[in-house]
Design goal:
Elements lengths: L3 E13 L10 H20 L4 H6 L2 E13 L3 E5 L6 H8 L7 E6 L3 E4 L12 H11 L4 H15 L14 H14 L4 E4 L8 H16 L3 E5 L3 H7 L2 E6 L2 E7 H13 L4 E3 L12 E9 L8 E3 L4 E9 L4 E11 L2 E7 L4 E3 L3 E9 L7 E13 L2 E16 L32
Parallel strand pairs: 3-7, 3-8, 5-6, 6-7, 12-19
Antiparallel strand pairs: 1-2, 1-4, 8-9, 10-11, 11-13, 13-17, 14-15, 14-16, 14-18, 18-19
């Protein structure tokens, strides 16, 4: 028996822009349309426009020629910019919409959470919707009853379980919807970015639940803009761009390449014209780089990778004492600052470089900006230059077992992630 849970071949989905479809039209509407369509086509031809070109300009391919395979028990992340086709892919796999071309084979029962309250009837209570969702998944009543208390406890809405869900807040909706989708034991669980509706504590619960689901041999598809969650939960990932499959492979590699493509500059700022670069008449900034062990500028790095911050500057007037400082900031908070411990006398003019080593397992996962300052002094006179957010980079932390997180699936709080030594002993 094949171990492939999902096989997608040449999948494509086209939408007509601005199209309106009427489920049931009257005879008069049909006759009117039959008369209007030839007139519209004739008008287009008189204007030099063919019918085919007119129709082509009104369509958009949300997915085009997408092919991949997912093995049973695999957790796979789906990433990409807004409009890349992520949600469309999940809707096709969930059989909510039909593809325009290609096909998808899915083995096993599907549980999906693509929108807040997917599959819920607003007039029914939470209790009734649990049984309705289970019936849609093909489960017997006894199976649903066996998991009922666990679902309610996970959603934390026991006081409102007999209230119609139309009165639920969006947070309550998504809590119950995820609890139902995850606990009714589908072979394939599909979750879109809808988890962002929940609070931070509930998001952690959901990530932990999806982790346990994948460890029991069931397949998980997870769409998210949270790259940290993707690397924590998923072993592999696919990246979509403009409806096409851009890359597939190990989650850490796919996330790294995606972040590098979205962040633009390769971890470096270079000024080629000294006359317009930051600085004073005594010195000018030439370049700031964040480089890896191979000396290559980077803007995405593994949490375990040490980095060097290089600050190049031109000394225009010799005989000054210099000191460089750098601050690393994330989410509006200063993670840490560092500076040269002593002022260094620059006797001659020319280009100088100050380098500071940022050790691995120091910064937590997330996006960071680097600001630098240069102080130059002679006697009591000070010359000063400061540049904020000169370099931007991203740190990701895979669940590899060798970082400070070890095999702990959820995130750790804080802006630093030092790898400390732990030991346990028996005390009698």
């Amino acid at each position: 028996m094949s171990d492939v849970a999902i096989r997608v071949e040449g999948l494509g989905k086209v939408y007509r822009i601005g199209a309106q479809r009427v489920a049931y039209g009257s005879l008069r509407e049909s006759l009117t349309q039959a008369i209007q369509v030839p007139l519209r086509n004739a008008t287009s031809l008189l204007r030099g426009q063919s019918r085919e070109n007119s129709e082509a300009g009104q369509t958009i391919w949300a997915l085009k020629d997408v092919s991949f395979e997912i093995k049973q028990g695999e957790a796979i992340g789906v990433i990409g910019r807004n409009g890349a086709g992520k949600s469309t892919l999940l809707k096709i796999l969930s059989r909510i919409t039909q593809p325009t071309e290609g096909y998808a084979e899915i083995r096993g029962r599907i549980g999906s959470l693509l929108e807040v309250g997917t599959g819920f009837h607003p007039e029914l209570t939470g209790r009734e919707n649990i049984y309705l969702s289970g019936a849609i998944l093909g489960m017997r009543k006894s199976e649903i009853q066996r998991r009922f208390d666990e679902i309610v406890a996970f959603a934390e809405i026991d006081k409102f379980i007999d209230t119609p869900v139309k009165h639920y807040s969006s947070g309550m909706y998504v809590r119950l919807a995820f609890a139902v989708a995850a606990h009714l034991e589908p072979e394939v669980l599909m979750v879109d970015e809808v988890l962002a509706v929940g609070d931070l504590q509930f998001q952690k619960k959901c990530l932990g639940k999806m982790q346990s689901v994948s460890q029991t041999g069931r397949t998980v598809l997870f769409v998210s803009h949270n790259m940290s969650a993707i690397t924590r939960l998923c072993s592999t990932a696919i990246s979509l761009d403009g409806g096409r499959l851009l890359e597939s492979g190990p989650a850490c590699d796919v996330v790294s390449h995606y972040l590098a493509s979205t962040m633009g500059t390769p971890g470096a700022a270079i000024w080629t014209d000294p006359g317009s670069s930051p600085g004073t008449n005594e010195f000018r900034l030439a370049a700031v780089r964040l480089v890896d062990g191979a000396g290559m500028a980077v803007n995405v790095t593994n949490i375990e990778q040490p980095l060097d911050l290089q600050i190049d500057y031109l000394v225009l007037k010799p005989g000054l004492r210099f000191r460089c400082t750098a601050s690393f900031n994330t989410g509006g908070t200063c993670a840490f600052s560092t500076l040269e411990p002593t002022e260094i006398l620059r006797q001659g003019s020319g280009r100088y470089r100050s380098t500071v080593r940022i050790p691995g397992n120091l910064l937590a996962e997330g996006e960071y900006t680097v600001g630098i300052s240069i102080f130059a002094s002679r006697a009591k006179k000070m010359h000063y230059c400061k540049v904020d957010d000169v370099v931007v980079f991203q740190v990701y932390d895979p669940v590899s077992g060798s970082s400070a997180r070890g095999d702990y699936a959820e995130g750790l709080s804080g802006v630093t992630r030092p790898l400390l030594s732990w030991h346990t002993e028996y005390l009698r």
